[in-house]
Design a protein that fits this description.
CATH topology of the domain at 6-15 and 73-161: GMP Synthetase, Chain A, domain 3
Order of helices and strands: HEEEHEHEHH
Strand content: 15-25%
Distance between the termini: 52 Å
CATH architecture of the domain at 6-15 and 73-161: 2-Layer Sandwich
CATH superfamily of the domain at 6-15 and 73-161: K homology (KH) domain
Radius of gyration: 19 Å
Mean pLDDT: 95
Number of helices: 5
Largest sheet: 3 strands, antiparallel
Low-confidence stretches: none
Length: 174
């Protein structure tokens, strides 16, 4: 339904009820800083389930020392969050049998780079707004209920709302 394989989602959920490990999805990829003059600053190959990969590139804007040739790293975070929320909404709508004619999403935030510049200690972002625009043959109450479920189940929303332990490591080239 509207580009969601409902049967696959239901099958995965059923497996996870019997085996919580079936819900675990490992994430692992490597990136590299580009040292060549004029190159995009950072690249990574993001693996896809079928064995292919997609290249992500990140570059700071000129005022932060880059050339602005690719999205900045936080743009990927914002994009990932709103994509996750929209995808969760579409999935939950499909599971409830609500056909979406269209679903548009937008994100709004203001970034304060004073911490990154070493000139202050304000949070880089003090709030993020996610908006969904939905076109469907469903009542506003049904659509709002799907949003509430999405708020609870969206992995991206959870990651933003809850502290997650971050462990940083340094390895030296030998």
């Amino acid at each position: 339904m509207h580009n969601v394989n409902v049967e696959a989602v239901e099958e995965t959920a059923a497996k996870a009820e019997g085996d919580p490990g079936a819900a675990v999805q490992p994430v692992a990829f490597d990136g590299e800083w580009q040292t060549a003059e004029g190159a995009v600053q950072f690249t990574a190959e993001i693996p896809l389930p079928d064995g292919r990969s997609v290249t992500f590139e990140a570059d700071y804007p000129p005022h932060m020392g880059g050339r602005g040739q690719a999205p900045n790293p936080l743009a990927y975070c914002f994009w990932g969050g709103i994509a996750c929320f929209a995808m969760t909404y579409a999935q939950e709508a499909a599971l409830k049998g609500v056909e979406l004619r269209s679903l548009k999403a937008r994100v709004r935030a203001e970034m304060n780079m004073s911490r990154a510049l070493g000139t202050g200690d304000l949070p880089p972002v003090d709030g993020i707004d996610w908006y969904l625009e939905v076109d469907a043959d469903a009542s506003e109450e049904e659509l709002a209920e799907i949003k509430e479920i999405s708020d609870e189940r969206c992995p991206g929303a959870f990651c933003i709302r809850n502290p997650i332990e971050l462990r940083t490591h340094l390895e030296t080239a030998a």
